[in-house]
Specification:
- Its main location: membrane.
- It comes from Inhella crocodyli.
- It is found in: Cell outer membrane.
- With about 450 residues, the chain is of the alpha+beta class.
- It has ten helices and six strands.
- It has a single domain, classed as Up-down Bundle (Outer membrane efflux proteins (OEP)), CATH 1.20.1600.
- The protein is about 65% helix and about 15% strand.
- The strands form two sheets. The protein has a four-stranded antiparallel beta sheet, with no helix packed on it.
- The longest helix is centred in the N-terminal third of the chain and has 68 residues.
- The N terminus is likely disordered.
Length: about 450
């Protein structure tokens, strides 16, 4: 027998199928695919969506007739003043059909509510998938970043050891000063301390990678390229696209629409309820009369609650307050998405400009370092000059590497902020909600959401 969790994971695995893509995205796709298949948050949203689907099915079932079968058997004792008591064995069965003819449109409104709730849970699933894919990409980028930091720190230690060996040779030859040896040893100790720190940082990001992806990172990973494809030309276009398609905003809109129909469903309880009922039954020895009996009947029943202490009106007001809450949460989601998109896009553009400058800075410092080494060997530079040049080169290399990894992450953040990271990674969803493709917010679009990102020209 298939274990329920194994079945769930297999459904999630088939829900995210790799599509054709370039090899540059292979590493990103691999970790995102694994994270989506094993993430507890994604599986929780999946189960919430499945529950909403079943809830919609239950709401639709209320439109049909209800058929109840009743069967009974027992003993009855009868006492009469003018006759001796008697006891009869009674048994029978009845079949009742009930069809709602009018309920103030309560059933139809509940179906609409359940349909919007289903869409809301589906968009929640997509939002969790985008978030999980971004966390997987972030984990991969950080692992690669810290591997690079460890390599640079290790190289820095090696260069300081070479410098120390040169000073030791000079001191032994009597042409060097003891203070230079102390200074070289101090710089080497600092470089080794930095290496220990970078190794500890690598351990931490590997632990986070295992939490997000579900397994340890592989030793060999292809170089990570920024996800530059299909990015808007301006921050304004990115924000507008995010507001129009981000699943978190769509989930907020769908939840608000569900709350609107929840109010209408509660209002339906204030109207009369009309039902058609048909019944047929057979039995033995009923009402103290021996023998078989049968009865059938059909009727239309009106039931209208005239007073219940104001409970129905209170429930309507309760749902109206929940509608206001859903509207606020929708607008909050829109503001959050707008902020995240604007920041991610600005980071991406800023880092693109910075990388060129940092590359030029690194190249210039590397040339200066080589010159300082040669000049130190012929006595034209002091040990402090050479060690400072080594530290400057190390710092410049770290800054350049961090900017390169930050830009790769910023492009992924921008795609995720626009709700298209999984699509960009080549992960297509096999499981599609029947109404999601043509869904539009319409009049339920966020009302309190800035449409345009800030610009520096307007602030300076």
């Amino acid at each position: 027998m298939t274990h329920p969790r194994s079945l769930l994971l297999s459904l999630l695995l088939t829900a995210w199928l790799p599509a054709a893509q370039s090899q540059d995205l292979a590493a990103y796709k691999a970790v995102a695919e694994k994270a989506l298949a094993t993430s507890p948050e994604v599986t929780a949203r999946w189960n919430a969506y499945q529950a909403a689907l079943e809830g919609l099915g239950a709401a639709r079932a209320a439109r049909g007739p209800r058929v109840d079968l009743r069967a009974e058997a027992g003993q009855e004792r009868f006492n009469y003043d003018a006759a001796p008591s008697s006891k009869l064995a009674r048994s029978g069965a009845s079949l009742t059909l009930t069809q709602v003819l009018w309920d103030g449109l309560g059933t139809q409104r509940d179906i609409e509510r359940s349909s919007h709730e289903r869409l809301g849970r589906y968009f929640d699933l997509l939002d969790a998938s985008e978030t999980t894919a971004l966390e997987a990409v972030r984990a991969l980028v950080d692992v690669q970043r810290m591997r690079r930091m460890v390599a640079l720190a290790d190289e820095n230690v090696a260069e300081h050891r070479k410098a120390l060996q040169k000073i030791e040779s000079r001191v032994k030859a009597g042409v060097g000063r003891g203070v230079d040896l102390e200074q070289a040893q101090a710089r080497l100790a600092l470089a080794e301390s930095n290496l220990i720190t970078e190794r500890a940082n690598l351990h931490d990001v590997v632990a986070r990678y295992q939490r997000v992806v579900g397994e340890a990172p592989s030793r060999q990973v292809a170089p990570l390229a920024p996800l530059d494809a299909q990015l808007p030309a301006t921050a304004t276009a990115a924000v507008q696209q995010a507001v129009g398609q981000h699943p978190a905003i769509r989930a907020g809109v769908a939840s608000m629409q569900a709350a609107e129909f929840a109010v209408k469903t509660r209002e339906s309880a204030l109207q009369p309820r009309v039902e058609f009922r048909a019944r047929t039954g057979r039995g033995h020895n009923y009402n103290g009369l021996e023998g078989r009996r049968g009865d059938s009947g059909a009727e239309v029943v009106l039931n209208w609650n005239l007073f219940d202490g104001g409970a129905d009106q209170a429930r309507v007001r309760q749902q109206a307050a929940l509608l206001g809450q859903a509207s606020d949460l929708r607008d909050k989601a829109c503001r959050d998405v707008t902020q995240v998109t604007a920041i991610a896009y600005n980071d991406m553009a800023k880092l693109r400009d910075q990388i060129g400058l940092l590359q030029a800075n690194t190249d210039a410092i590397e040339r200066a370092r080589q010159a300082y080494r040669q000049q130190f060997d012929i006595g034209q530079r002091s040990l402090l000059d050479m060690l400072n040049a080594e530290n400057e080169a190390y710092t410049a290399q770290r800054a350049l590497a961090n900017a390169q990894f930050d830009r790769a992450l910023a492009t992924a953040r921008t795609h995720a902020a626009m709700g298209q990271l999984t699509q960009q990674l080549g992960l297509s969803r096999q499981t599609q909600d029947e109404d999601a493709a043509g869904w539009r917010a319409g009049d339920a679009a966020p009302a309190r959401c800035p449409a345009l990102p800030p610009t520096l020209d307007s602030l300076l």
